[in-house]
Design goal:
Shape: elongated
Distance between the termini: 72 Å
Bound molecules: fe (ii) ion
Oligomer: single chain
Strand content: under 5%
Order of helices and strands: HHHH
Length: 169
């Protein structure tokens, strides 16, 4: 009589290809988080002015959260038999979050943060979709991270609205 061993899901030998694909998606998320840490760290120090303080404080808190996300992505890559990439694999994408000409240009940073968070939300939504029924552990982890990014985006949309209402954006 033929016996089939119970499924190990994403850890099945037969799932190797899917697993590699999930690792690729996770690696992209990992780099997005690392670049966000760099951009937010720079902006949280560079910005000048009374109005910038709230944004600087918020970014300072976000740095820790984004680094925490990078750690989660790295750990999951490892669990799925992948290798966390080295620095030579890094290719910057956040041209919109480079330091502004004037360090009092808070709106430039706010718009850049919204763009970075939007990019993360799009990529993580894709991971949630693609891991559905395939890798619920990764899906669960990324849903939590996605929730954080939605919160970040919402907060900075609020900052932008204030500047827009005052005719400063
Ligand atoms: Fe993040
Ligand atoms: Fe974020």
């Amino acid at each position: 009589m033929e016996t089939t061993s119970p499924s190990k899901g994403i850890f099945d030998g037969a799932s190797a290809e899917v697993r590699e694909h999930v690792v690729e998606l996770l690696a992209r998320g990992y780099w997005m988080e690392i670049e966000t840490v760099m951009s937010y760290l720079a902006a949280s120090v560079n910005l000048d002015g009374v109005r910038a303080q709230e944004v600087k404080e918020s970014l300072t808190g976000d740095i820790e959260e984004e680094l925490g996300h990078a750690r989660l992505f790295a750990a999951r890559i490892k669990e799925l038999y992948g290798v966390v990439p080295g620095s030579e694999g890094f290719a910057p994408e956040q041209s919109f979050l480079q330091p502004p000409e004037e360090q009092t240009d808070v709106v430039h940073v706010i718009r850049g943060v919204i763009k970075a968070e939007t990019g993360a939300i799009e990529h993580y939504t894709r991971i949630v979709d693609e891991t559905d029924q395939v890798d619920p552990v990764t899906q669960d982890m990324v849903i939590d991270i996605l929730h954080d990014e939605q919160g970040h985006r919402r907060l900075f949309e609020g900052f932008l609205r204030e500047y827009e209402r005052e005719g400063l954006a």
